[in-house]
## 1
Amino acid sequence: MIVSTRIDNAHISDYFARSFVADNALLFGEGVMLTHEDNELLCRVGPGTPMGNLFRRYWIPALLSDEIPEPDSPPVRVKLLGEEMVAFRDTNGNVGLLDNNCPHRRASLFFGRNEECGLRCVYHGWKFDVNGDCVDMPSEPAESNFKEKVKITAYPTVERGGAVFAYMGPREKQPPFWNFEMFTLADNHIFAGRTRAYCNYMQAIEGNIDSSHISYLHRNLADLKMTDFDDGTDVPGFPSAKMSTKIRGTSRTPSLELQETPYGWRYAGIRITANGHQHLRITTNVFPIFNMVSRLPDQDIGFSLFVPLDDENHWRWNFSGKLDRPYTTEERETRTSQRGELDENGKPLRGPWNDYLLDREAQRTVSYSGVTGVQAQDMAVQDSMGIIADRTEEHLGTTDQAVIHNRKVLLKAARDLMEGIDPPMPDPSIVVKVRSHEEIIPGDADWRLYGAYAGEDAGIKV
């Protein structure tokens, strides 16, 4: 196993330009467990927590635009990083994200009246605009200036691609909004969706960056025959979807190689094909929690992120984009229903309340897991670890390199912030080019020269 560390430091920030050397214990096949204290640091995200403070320094999605579809439509509840809030769209179409509780007597603004460019508390009529300013206080004397002294917590928002993003950190540290390639497209070329999940966010992040599990958890037993999968694309270039499935199904012990980048880090899951080539599945990770799973050129661009509601629940966000055309109405409906896996209220049909409709007969004859749907399969095993996984009991192996590295990067940034060191901000001029990648390359080729940036023939210089 090789861990790549040779990179062109001229193209990388000082923060990201550090070598990653695997622990000796891992190289010898022994586990690298977190301490209880590190696990707590990694998983707790409420106000004042180190990891919560870290995530508050970045723009993260808070809700779907469709939840507040029109000006002066009803406000909605939002929970994010352990904070209870309400979101509303004012008369001018601007989105406000306010503390849930009115600063007067702490009544919930969810019951408020959204009218005339502000959200009015129904208890005593105090009204707040999207900036958190109190613009009306009818219960006070007309000559009073008390309203000028009262402000409610309000977070900046940016609406893009069907989602409302929020920045919850110090105003003086507010970064520019994300410059992902997808966000250069018109909104009708973008689809944003999310699913509620019932465990700590870190279990989902670690599932998404784990390349080896796809050969097991997501395996379709019928594919093992693969009689018509050898279509001649096991050659340098881009494999067909069928060939990709065949390689992943027959080569189940990928080697993992990691590389620091100007936007965070990326890794390749490398499998040797029947013809002796390297099959690359390159996953990119834009700091702190944006993840792009490997893709073929004819597939939509996109990214995922797993955003904590609190310490015990998270949203599984998925953004996808079409470079050449808008999504059709039918495509949007299919994605919104997650191919029929959500009920009419948007609740998953499968969840911990019904064991994800595990089918033991299907497990014997159809799928490795017995659970239908890739997302449900992921959520089932992640939920099964407990609401917050006890990582002190883990025994990690060679295929867990990406998981270990991600923990180290996040823990370092959180600890640095505790010491007053600002967290890294990915370079916008680089982020706009970043994609994930899948390709078959010659057996002796250097994977680091492939698929780093959109629109370029080669990757990061080595």
## 2
Amino acid sequence: DIPLNIVYEDDDILVINKPRDLVVHPGAGNPDGTVLNALLHYYPAIADVPRAGIVHRLDKDTTGLMVVAKTIPAQTRLVESLQLREITREYEAVAIGHMTAGGTVEEPISRHPTKRTHMAVHPMGKPAVTHYRIMEHFRIHTRLRLRLETGRTHQIRVHMAHITHPLVGDQVYGGRPRPPKGASEEFITALRKFDRQALHATMLRLYHPISGIEMEWHAPIPQDMV
């Protein structure tokens, strides 16, 4: 019985704000208790739609906005829109290090050659493009706004680690907590307790798959990232 935090709904689509610690698709180790299970529970008819209407994923511990198709025509059109890069997805993140300027990472991504659950930058990988801009500087961290042009698995996390600025809390790609010199005990404790990647899907913009109207949603940064 997983509550879906629904931000928007009509006959064709719904937009949810996914919490942390929630897997999108059932898989090894997560047979149930996923977004897909919740969708089938609340919307039995969505069983007829491929992948229960899920057209893009968020990692288990990434929070924020996801669009779901409730009908096959909506699903077909949304998948097309994603492929044509007509859907805009922006993320808030906190990266390790003092970054001096925004930019673009354009590096192909594939499965890691030895660690099967990890992804890596690899010349034979699929094209991947991440744009980022600086929102705020902290002592040894930088708050970023990122825009995805492609949607590879773990894309932002892999790209930021590749440019030596992994996301805070990202145990997989090197974002272990490193408190700045002279930090308060309170800050050090908070940083150590932050056990997920600091990544939140904050904005989603798309053309409605049936009406064609441009729509946009925003999800505020979750409390644990503030």
